[in-house]
Amino acid sequence: xxxxxxxxxxxxxxxxxxxxxxxxxxxxxxxxxxxxxxxxxxxxxxxxxxxxxxxxxxxxxxxxxxxxxxxxxxxxxxxxxxxxxxxxxxxxxxxxxxxxxxxxxxxxxxx
Length: 111
Fold this sequence. Notes:
- 30% of the residues are buried.
- The protein has no helices and eleven strands.
- It is globular.
- It is 0% helix and 51% strand.
């Protein structure tokens, strides 16, 4: 069983940066990607970025070039570096691995 804990959310002004972390414990599988999803009020949860065990990355079009996903396999931790943040990035961000989800961390972009 995998347990995921996110951290690093908060309030930031437009144009600012945040780094989210997701610490994983338990049986991490190389079959599943590690991913970051987000859900804004009244909207469906969407995949923001994902990374395979080999380090291949994919991004939502609207964040490509602004966000960077990375992983530290030794620490079982995945990061999401978010730069040039926009108000439309405001959402609860969730870490995912297979069937496991973290509790979410709030990111608010506002002046």
